[in-house]
Automatic annotation (TrEMBL):
Entries under Pfam families matching the protein: Asparaginase_2
Protein name as annotated: N(4)-(Beta-N-acetylglucosaminyl)-L-asparaginase
InterPro entries for this protein: Ntn_hydrolases_N (IPR029055), Peptidase_T2 (IPR000246)
Residues of the site described as Cleavage: D191, T192
CDD domains tied to this protein: Glycosylasparaginase
Amino acid sequence: MKRRNFIKNASLSSVGVAVGSSILNCAENKKEDSTTTTSKTKASLPLVIATWNVPNATAKAWGVLQNNGSVLDALEQGVMIEEADEKNQSVGKGGRPDRDGNVTLDACIMNKDGDCGAVVYMQNITHAISVARKVMEDTPHVMLAGKGAEQFAVKSGMKQENLLTEKSKKEWEEWLVEKEYKPIINIENHDTIGMLAIDKNGDISGACTTSGLAYKIAGRVGDSPIIGSGLFIDNEVGGAVATGLGEEVVKTVGSFLVVELMRQGKSPQEACEEAIGRIVNKPNSNYKNFQVGYIAVNKQGETGSYSIHEWFSMTKYQDGKNENYQSDYYLKDKA
Ligand code: ASP
């Protein structure tokens, strides 16, 4: 029920507050009111946002940035919290398996220079995000898959372990009774962790990690490790990450779309809404049966978040405050 315990906040644009570490100029304020005391406001940095209600992950990342750690260290260490948390059944250790009972992980990371790394369909290594980072930093490649990714992780010093916990195993065995396979993601049953961060210099990077759709066909890969779909960063514009039914995100190249819409002048909130619109407005879209959510941040430190269904949320750590915001959603006010 923790996702239902949201702070209701329909407007997700962050109005920055000038503090010591602020460097980004937001738009000129046209008039002064009780909340606007200067002609210019600045976003308070560092800033970390993440999909869902993950205060421990955002706190970790923000702490790293606050202590002048690198933005990639912040993102990696932040999402590692969720990868290691066995209670989170959509990421890392404890993730729900595919239909054959194997937990397979997808992850990617992207930095301010447009460099990126990803792993897909990787087994037996908890911290997929660390492997993705190593792919980016230690190889000439962008993506490693399956056994190759696992071998690379082991050669890089990572520990192999069984990722299938008793709880996830038991639930999978219950699922086996009916074996109902439909590629419809339960509206609340997915938790890909996507995280975007801006460091004190104003540079943006992002990370995304998941065990993907529960009981998927063996070999299935979703949007989360696909640069441009699950995650995209353009340090001149902003960044976006996705969660939800990956097939729908891939078909619309969702995160790239959100960033390109921001480049055209849309706010992060408007860009997320239009990207969701591209999915729900497709002919024959089955959107009432699946969830997709986006979060985004622009170079000015404004943020946005939007989904198809209710109960998607974004955690934001900024200015010493770590808060969860319920996202506005397409089906609101629609029968
Ligand atoms: N986007 C993920 C996938 O399709 C699922 C999720 O967000 O939980 O693999």
